[in-house]
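To: structure desk
From: M.T.
Subject: fold request, one chain
Message: Could you run this one when you get a chance? Sequence is below, nothing fancy, just the single chain.
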Amino acid sequence: MYTNRNTEYLHVGAAATKTTSDFPTTLNTGEIGIFTPEGVRMTEFTADTETRFMIATKLADGTFVTTPAIKKAEIVSAKRLVYTAATQQLDYIGYTGSTGSIDVVNSEYYSVYIHLQEGVRSSSDGIKIKHAFYNSDSAATQAEIAIGITGSLIANFSREAEEWVTFKAICNEAVTSTNDFDNEIVWAKGSKTILATTNTQYGGGSSLAVGDFIRLQTSEAVTTTTSDIYRVKSISGLVITVDRPIQITYYSSPGNDGTGSEVLTAAEGAAANWGIALTGQALEFATGKFGYSVARWEVKLRGADTDEGWGSTTFTNSTAATEGSGVINQLKELEWFLWGNEGEVYRESFSETFAARTNISSAVGGGGYDLIRLVIEAENNVSLTKTVSPYVITLALPATAPNYAIEGTADDITDVLEELAFGSVNDNLAIT
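Reply: Done. Structure tokens follow.
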């Protein structure tokens, strides 16, 4: 005999107004309600004396999702998980935007090894090793090393089908917004050229020169010390060629307004502290095809012979990668797996045979969902023995909470659940 144990019931709430009538049929679309098994709406007062309850949700198509009748004595735990957005990993080699530098050694072989965690996206052991190399010249500068390694990383990762990490060369030369180009410039992501529409002058008449540097910003905003920097390799008329493919999404910088771009002279760049920023990117997700995950990696710095080849160069893990809690794609994935528990989808050839459907809103208030998770251990008599069947009930509530779940609303579901689980309204599940 085969048994499906540890089942989970997922109820996805929406921005609905609370009702007070009996029976799940009276719920508003997207509302979650708590009732007795007979359909009487439960209040904080009746939750003290009732021994069993059920949870119901009205879906957008007018149908209902309901739990089995639950004995409140069988609630093992009740916990609220507040929505937390995912974070992308952010590392710095050398300068971080506030501190740090790259140790400069003439004629030194600099290399970076990135151990990229692929997880279930890989048919290997789940780790892919990527590299970047640069051999400094006999009069090396931090700018030379940072730009050389950044270009090598971009070239190596350009072979990947998916953009896991982006790379920037940055430096601590103070922002001077008056060094914007005098006239409009345009570029395209992936190109090594910038087109000046009128001339290549900046800062009110200064002439751009080969060897100068250009900071570029992703939107019409003032550049910062963590904006991406490119070195000018050549100038031909109105066409400026830089050291590597531009990683900034296409933007037309209007010029002479202190935003979008900034020129650093060759001397300023040579005197600055430089660094390389490695930023994780949102990975492809498709329900039933590409699982939800975030990019993770480890960085190892090496020289020609030893791990200490970068000398005193600082390495900083500024932000750790986290999946977050109540993230939209997390819940879409959970919902899909739970359909499988109900026998509603066939996993094999799912993408070709079945259309993914979801009750998860991509435009949910607050950007994601707060979760309330009830762990139930239901006792069942089978023949002459008693078995315990554990299962979980997950309530997903918009982070910008609807009033049927907000503390202080009369008989809101969180207060009722606290009465059922803890015997009093104790704010363990409170949503404000």
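Reply (cont.): Residues 90-319 form one domain. Let me know if you need anything else for the meeting.
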